[in-house]
Write a structure and sequence with these properties.
Length: 225
């Protein structure tokens, strides 16, 4: 579904990705783990075409990704600020979810909304609260729910566990597994929290200073300290 071939990405003189090649097959959860500054966010952004790879290719279903204006792929840069979480802080939870359904014309809104409530019951209890008044973990849930309403085919998740209470982290990882199992959605998950990510991933890669230094099934990498 997604293939990176020898991808290099530069910020001026800094080379943040130094020849990354990887494949994501349809229906998989693939995780990229690595320390702060390893290039994880850059990798997800390069997949979406900004910044562009200075060398190498990103192919989505065999075609150059930068030429595909598509809602098939959603990159949830949900790790940083409330803005980065891709929610509208002044809008209610319900309004945020409605915005998520805009790319599909709202055709499946009611039915998809029920699925989001099943995944994240907390959101249902807070429907008329403003997004900005939710806790960090709840905002994360809202961001994921909102992304699902666009019915993407590939979901890119940037450190969904960062800065979130452990109990909500558990719920978010559980929901990621459910989304993959029930909806068959392909997920590329970038994480510093290696243990949690590898536990749910079909396959994983370790990224260190812009290079993939290890690859294996989630289990293999967990066994490898
Ligand atoms: P991670 O997501 O793994 O923490 P990043 O992809 O954010 O890593 O960063 C990889 C490297 O690229 C780091 O050395 C970082 O300082 C650098 N970098 C990231 N964004 C920029 C930018 N906009 N301009 C210059 N350097 C950047
Ligand atoms: P319908 O037949 O009315 O289009 P389905 O429930 O059969 O709706 O789903 C159609 C496709 O959309 C399926 O591949 C399903 O996995 C996917 N899908 C349904 N709901 C969601 C959702 N909330 N997020 C992502 N994909 C979804």
């Amino acid at each position: 579904m997604l293939r990176l071939e020898n991808v290099h990405t530069r910020y001026g003189n800094i080379e943040a990705l130094k020849g990354v090649s990887l494949d994501v097959e349809q229906g998989e959860i693939v995780t990229i783990i690595g320390a702060n500054g390893a290039g994880k966010s850059t990798l997800l952004m390069t997949i979406c075409g900004s910044p562009k790879a200075s060398e190498g290719r990103v192919l989505y279903e065999g075609r150059d990704i930068t030429r595909l204006p598509t809602y098939d792929i959603v990159n949830l840069g949900i790790s940083q600020s409330p803005e980065g979480r891709r929610i509208f802080p002044r809008m209610t939870v319900y309004e945020n979810l409605q915005m998520g359904a805009v790319p599909t014309g709202g055709k499946w809104f009611e039915q998809d909304l029920e699925r989001v409530f099943t995944l994240f019951p907390r959101l249902k209890e807070r429907l008329h609260q403003r997004g900005g008044t939710l806790s960090g973990g709840e905002q994360q849930m809202l961001a994921i729910g909102r992304a699902l309403l666009a019915r993407p085919r590939l979901l890119l998740l940037d450190e969904p566990s960062l800065g979130i209470a452990p109990i909500l982290v558990q719920q978010i990882f559980k929901a990621i597994v459910e989304i993959n199992r029930m909806q068959g959605l392909t997920i590329l998950l970038v994480e510093q929290n290696a243990y949690q990510a590898l536990k749910i991933a079909h396959r994983g890669y370790v990224l260190a200073t812009g290079r993939l230094v290890m690859a294996g099934t989630g289990r293999e990498l967990l066994a490898n300290p």
